[in-house]
């Protein structure tokens, strides 16, 4: 049960006739000498934390981050859906968006979340898994399995490229999360391992080049909204893969491209808050207001 | 492989907002605490790179101190750690360095009390994972993911073999091992041994008694 790349992971799943989630579970059991129960229960615990974060962000009144830069937008989306007017992107997409934003807002307010793969991108996977479960009438077990799929894909990305904004820009963080999530919901929807890999490639391609430029260095602006859009992209990429669409560039090569782009990205665009949106007049004004100085 | 477990990717459970600047920072703090072996009275924390620029907004300062106090990444007391440190009489000083570090998220921690000091450099490599890259001037690489023995010894032939023998006699398998020395001729070296099994007090005692061994620290 060893794999290093997405191609190896898909091949392993196909030859053993196992879903990706099962390959990941067994690999974890062998590598760390743990029982299935231990491994699966730990992940189920993570799913519970995710659910609590979603609920908190959608329901807690006046949820704001210490800086005041974020909080409350997930609830605005919910209220907008409830109003019943015409929705341009549709209630399904917006449900995902509201959940993804909710977790991201809870994170910014120093709440408890699961890093997936990082805290900055923690909204995407829960937002999509809980929305997909609602659509597909999937049970808890299928949701926990989705987290293992996402972990398997993230494992390949992390060991061949990077998963943090400081190392590779936001493409590495929100990009990786979006790609991992797209692959995860494909398995929930009954797609094949190869389709999961295609969903990953399609999603990640649309995140390439995304820089990490958080205002005042805080994981809030643009992060919360990038989580929102990451959720939306993951769901669309999953549907595209389920429709049989394939990425022209294979998944591992897209990951390789992400690595090289990240390596070439200047430091000012890697979480240092020195470039991009952080360096706009408004970004700088906010930074001054929050820290009372130029950082 | 930098990342070995699915829970390195889906995890940790943590207090936000940043896995590298909050969770990874807390883990650097708690590794430093275990390397020191007790609660310090004074801590001087120098932050470099992105840590230095953005620590206030990410709660990096709060997280490192939380880790030093022994709090886990998901312990809600982290949010109050500066006050708790103050109440417990731990004196904390922060220094923002503008030196360019090798890694953007680097912290140097100097822990002190009347019994001694420890100087630990940690980097937060993403997704809440960290590595200790320096201990008391010795370069090393330590992830804290496996139990590890850190053994100061005289830089002399046979020292490593003696330790290996004790481990073998006690059926402890070595997963990874490295030896670090500052420069030849200082006669002191640091042996870092990651083991598959944890090393109990009895075995620790046997190692400490060996000739050429000056001190032993366990990170579990
Ligand atoms: S902009 Fe940077 S801090 Fe914000 S989510 Fe993206 S990678 Fe994380």
Distinct ligand kinds? iron/sulfur cluster
Q: Helical amount among residues of chain A, as a percent range?
A: 55-70%
- Write the CATH fold name of chain A: 2-methylcitrate dehydratase PrpD
Which assembly state applies to the chains in this document?
Answer: heterodimer
What's the CATH C level of chain A? Mainly Alpha
CATH architecture of chain A: Orthogonal Bundle
Query: For the residues shown, what is the average pLDDT of chain B?
Result: 91
According to CATH, the fold-level topology of the largest domain in chain B is 60s Ribosomal Protein L30, Chain: A
Shape of chain B: globular
Q: How many structural domains in the coordinates of chain A?
A: 1
Q: What's the structural domain tally of chain B?
A: 2
> What class would the helix/strand composition of chain A place it in?
mainly alpha
Q: Roughly what percent helix of chain B? A: 25-40%
User: Can you give the mean pLDDT of chain A?
Assistant: 96
Textual characterization of the structure:
The complex is a heterodimer of chains A (295) and B (220). Chain A has 13 helices and one strand; from the N terminus they run αααααβαααααααα. Chain A has 295 residues and is mostly helical. Chain A has a single domain, classed as 2-methylcitrate dehydratase PrpD, CATH 1.10.4100. In chain B, strand 4 and strand 5 form a beta hairpin. Chain B has two domains: 137 residues, 60s Ribosomal Protein L30, Chain: A, CATH 3.30.1330; 72 residues, 2-Layer Sandwich (Alpha-Beta Plaits). In chain B, strands 3-2-4-5-6-7 form a six-stranded mixed beta sheet. In chain B, strands 9-10-8-11 form a four-stranded antiparallel beta sheet, sandwiched between helices. The longest helix of chain B is centred in the N-terminal third of the chain and has 18 residues. At the A-B interface, helix 2, helix 3, helix 5, strand 1 and helix 7 of A face helix 1, strand 1, helix 2 and helix 3 of B. Strand 1 of chain A pairs antiparallel with strand 1 of chain B, so a sheet runs across the interface. The complex binds iron/sulfur cluster. The site of iron/sulfur cluster has 14 residues of chain A, from helix 9 and helix 11. Chain A: Pfam families: SDH_alpha (PF03313). Chain A: One of its GO terms (molecular function) is L-serine ammonia-lyase activity. Chain A: It is an enzyme of class 4 (lyase).
């Amino acid at each position: 049960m060893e794999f290093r790349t997405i191609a190896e992971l898909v091949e392993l799943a196909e030859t053993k006739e196992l879903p990706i989630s099962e390959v990941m579970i067994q690999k974890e059991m062998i590598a760390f000498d743990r029982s299935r129960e231990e491994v699966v229960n730990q992940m189920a615990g993570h799913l519970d934390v995710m659910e609590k974060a979603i609920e908190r962000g959608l329901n807690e009144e006046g949820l704001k981050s210490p800086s005041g830069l974020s909080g409350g937008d997930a609830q605005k989306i919910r209220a907008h859906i409830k109003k019943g007017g015409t929705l341009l992107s549709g209630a399904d997409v917006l449900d995902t968006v509201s959940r993804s934003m909710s977790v991201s807002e809870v994170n910014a307010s120093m709440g408890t979340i699961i890093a997936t793969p990082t805290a900055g991108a923690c909204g995407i996977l829960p937002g999509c898994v809980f929305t997909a479960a609602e659509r597909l009438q999937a049970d808890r077990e299928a949701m926990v399995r989705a987290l293992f799929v996402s972990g398997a894909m993230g494992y390949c990305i992390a060991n061949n490229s990077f998963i943090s904004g400081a190392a590779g820009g936001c493409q590495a963080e929100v990009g990786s999360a979006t790609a991992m999530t797209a692959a995860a919901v494909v398995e929930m929807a009954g797609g094949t391992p190869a389709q999961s890999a295609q969903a990953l490639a399609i999603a990640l391609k649309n995140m390439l080049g995304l820089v990490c430029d958080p205002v005042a260095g805080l994981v809030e602006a643009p992060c919360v909204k990038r989580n929102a859009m990451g959720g939306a992209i993951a769901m669309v990429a999953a549907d595209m893969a389920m429709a049989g669409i394939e990425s022209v560039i294979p998944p591992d090569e897209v990951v390789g491209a992400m690595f090289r782009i990240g390596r070439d990205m200047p430091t000012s665009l890697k979480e240092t808050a020195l470039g991009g949106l952080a360096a706009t007049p408004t970004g700088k004004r906010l930074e001054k207001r929050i820290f009372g100085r130029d950082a | 492989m930098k990342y070995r477990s699915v829970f390195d990717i889906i995890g940790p459970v943590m207090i936000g907002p940043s896995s590298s600047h909050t969770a990874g920072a807390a883990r650097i703090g708690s590794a430093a605490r275990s390397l020191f072996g007790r609660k310090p009275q004074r801590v001087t924390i120098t932050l470099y790179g992105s840590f230095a620029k953005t620590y206030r907004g990410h709660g990096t300062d709060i997280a490192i101190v939380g880790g030093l106090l022994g709090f886990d990444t998901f312990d809600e007391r982290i949010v109050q750690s500066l006050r708790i440190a103050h109440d417990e009489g731990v004196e904390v000083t922060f220094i923002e360095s503008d030196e360019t570090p090798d890694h953007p998220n680097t912290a140097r921690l100097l822990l002190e009390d009347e019994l001694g000091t420890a100087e630990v450099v940690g980097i937060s490599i993403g997704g809440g994972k960290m590595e200790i890259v320096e201990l008391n001037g010795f370069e090393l690489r330590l992830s804290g993911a496996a139990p590890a023995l850190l053994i100061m010894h005289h830089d002399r032939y046979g020292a490593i073999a003696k330790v290996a023998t004790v481990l073998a006699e006690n059926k402890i398998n070595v997963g990874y091992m490295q030896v670090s020395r500052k420069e030849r001729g200082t006669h002191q070296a640091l042996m870092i041994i990651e083991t598959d099994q944890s090393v109990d007090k009895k075995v620790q005692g046997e190692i400490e008694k060996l000739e050429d061994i000056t001190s032993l620290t366990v990170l579990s």
